[in-house]
Amino acid sequence: MTETEETGRKPARVVVADDQTVVREGIVMLLGLLPGVEVVGAAGDGDEAVALVAELAPDVVLMDLRMPRCDGVEATRRIRAEYPGTQVVILTTYADDESLFPALRAGARGYLTKDAGGDEIVRAVESVLSGDAGLSPSIQRRLLERLSEPPAEPLPPTEGPDGLTARETEVLLLIAEGLTNQEIARKLHVSTATVKTHINNLFAKTGLKDRAQAVRYAFGKGLVRPPVD
């Protein structure tokens, strides 16, 4: 690995994770033209991204959110828990609250939308490696707006839609808050295995496939009140 001429630092070793082959290859090609970045691997879903982090120990993962098997939020949570030396920058089409805040709670240090230019991506990578946040200006504005809003208030747990029990509804609300299984277990004073059982049951009853869908479901069913403008 050679040092870049401009900074004298070694290039940041980056893994790209995106389930769309054309998009993934395009990002890899773009990054290959930029100084200060070395792409060391590419993944088609969150599970592959976690495996590549374990194998290659990259400095940064550029992570898409909507992916099969394991989405970007769960992959980010696993990477930050198991491989804290690797930072995560979300690179996604979506800038809505239901995508942004769970990703940041999961441990992502940067968040860009896919209309970001190459220079903006490099700046975000450099920022997170320096200990700062790598956020696009639009995301920074959204965070400031959110900080000025009253917090969302979950409704009291009751029997929910689609036959969800009160406990399953409560677990769903905590997922919508961005809590991990371990955090839910501690909050409810139950085992992680019990939490997983509740999640499996509520997913089966509602037809949900991942936590991102669960967040959208909770808002769509009115189980979580959006912030008041």
TrEMBL record:
Which SUPFAM superfamilies does the entry mention? CheY-like
Is the keyword Chloroplast assigned to this protein? no
Domain of life according to the entry: Bacteria
Residues that the record marks as modified (4-aspartylphosphate) are D64
Keywords, sorted A to Z: DNA-binding, Phosphoprotein, Transcription, Transcription regulation
Outline the extent of the HTH luxR-type domain: 157-222
Q: SMART domains given for it?
A: HTH_LUXR, REC
> Residues in domain Response regulatory?
13-129
Q: Which PROSITE patterns match?
A: HTH_LUXR_1, HTH_LUXR_2, RESPONSE_REGULATORY
This chain's protein is named Response regulator transcription factor
Q: Which organism does this sequence originate in?
A: Streptomyces siamensis
Lineage in the entry? Bacteria, Bacillati, Actinomycetota, Actinomycetes, Kitasatosporales
